[in-house]
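Hey, quick one: can you model this chain's 3D structure?
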Amino acid sequence: MLFKALSGSGKAGKPEKKKSNNATVGLKTPYMNLPKSKAGGSDSDSQLQIRVRKENSSKYTRDDLLSQPKLFKEVANSSREDRILLMIKKLRLCSIVFDFTSEEEMDKRVALAKENKRQHLLDLIDHVTTAPKWFCPEIVPYVIETVSSNLFRSLPPTPYVDWDPEEDDPVLDPQWPHLQLVYEFLLRFVVSSQSEVRILRRYIKKNNKQFLINVIHLFRSDDPREREYLKTILHRIYGKFMAFRSTIRKQINFVFYTLIFAESKHNGVSELLEILGSIINGFALPLKEEHVKFLKTVLIPLHKVRTFTQFSQQLAYCVTQFIDKDPSLASIVIKGLLTFWPRQSATKEQLFLNELEEVLEASTETEVTKMLHPLFSQVAKCVASPHFQIAERALFLWNNDAVATYTNEHREKILPILYPALNANTQMHWNATVHSLAFNIIRMFMEMDVALWDQVSKKYDEQEKQEKQKKQMRASKWDKLRQSAELRKRKMETALSSQK
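Sure thing. Here's the predicted structure for all 500 residues.
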């Protein structure tokens, strides 16, 4: 059911069939259950509800969009009922969807209808922004229906097999002239102080909260402008509707689980992580088990995703927010980074080093000490890397005061781990910058504790000498073994020849 919902195949998110020029709007949808009076009888219905039902019974086609739009300012002196009915009519007219990719774009009648729809949307945006007392329960199902019919659609396939934001141009949706205005209207509608949360919640809950599921599904869009609007709208919904917060977090988690374990690409990960960064910042202390589990099972495994480079900055921010909230999570984060440390991608390894620096800066000494040996063993590997950018970035860690201070306080344990890599860099590394930076780190250690440096250096030289002796002894044994085998071979050949 959940896959069906996310694929946009639910009732609320079902894409409209291609309409002819005479396509009508007026069909009943899951959102179009109009509010009834408490008495339930038509005699006791308010005059407004009677007029709304009459409006709902009429059907609109594209031909109705050919006439000049009636503006709200023209009915400014009319009754509130008239303004509400005009708003409903405009919303129903804006539910008519156009195809921006077919040959009908050249049709003058279609072009006029598109322009008039655009004018209706602009008028609606201005109305919900500036008009007083425009909100009433009767308009909510029409708002949701208009938004659903325009936004919840089948997204076109991406033209790029492996999209690179630094090299490839973003894919722009041809329907954006209308989509942008619908998104702007939805945003103004949600953030308006006149919108009553209780009434909106009742309609959004319909159809198993399909509206929210479809909004999150749209983050797959290739158009960055659309994802930016979605990010703002979903964040505002999360802040305004407390009852939907758990649902939104679960749906975002589902997107991430799918990315980690099934698919390798999702366009909206960075935007979703930006929303989560703000959400995590507002978590109450102590952190719930659900939130800690989210860090362990979602955020940390996201580091292994192939497209990690596209959202590394947002992911690092979310992780460091958790450490700021609960410093005891630092060791878990460091262990996770070391578990998913890249082995072949120099770009990803540099991003990991960037994140590691932020994590170390936010961590306490106690938590870092728990992972001291594996942590600085990995840093030493990076320092000794033949890729000069990785080695350079690793050596730049000591420009951070937190790293330098921690190294000073635990130099007895850290220096023996780092010394082989630093020594190799000063003697054999081909890059002059790495050579210079390694000398700076050595100078820093010598200024901290000369005696310790001499002790570690002497011990390392002795180990190197012993290692050379072991290699020589091993080589000598193999030489003797080869000579012995050669001698036996000759003896056997001699014996066989004498028998003949």
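One thing worth noting: The chain has 22 helices and no strands.
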